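Here is an idea for our session: we take a single protein and study its fold together. Which protein we use is up to you, so please pick one and set it down. Once you have written the record down, we can walk along the chain together:
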Amino acid sequence: MNLRDIKKDIQYVIGAFVDDCTLFLNVNPGKNADEIAGLIDKAVDLYNDLRDRIVAAPKEGLKAYYYAIQKELLEKTDGLYDELAAAVKKGLGK
């Protein structure tokens, strides 16, 4: 795992989540728009936090540090997808 790969992973995973949120908003205008916008804000905050932590990486133990960041990315994004699924169900009345 190197710096370039972890940056691309963060951008891809967060970007895919934001795309999914905007797709729901475009297909279902007005349904849970505020809640979905809040999820997008959380995703952007996660993106900024992870990118800032990568810039401030320690000089030693980079491999373990990058793996920990990648693990956190996946765990927190899974949580965001769970919240998105709940918002979609609520927005569709299911």
In short: The chain is about 85% helix and 0% strand. Residues 5 and 66 are 10 Å apart (CA to CA). The mean pLDDT is 91. The chain has one domain: 3-92.
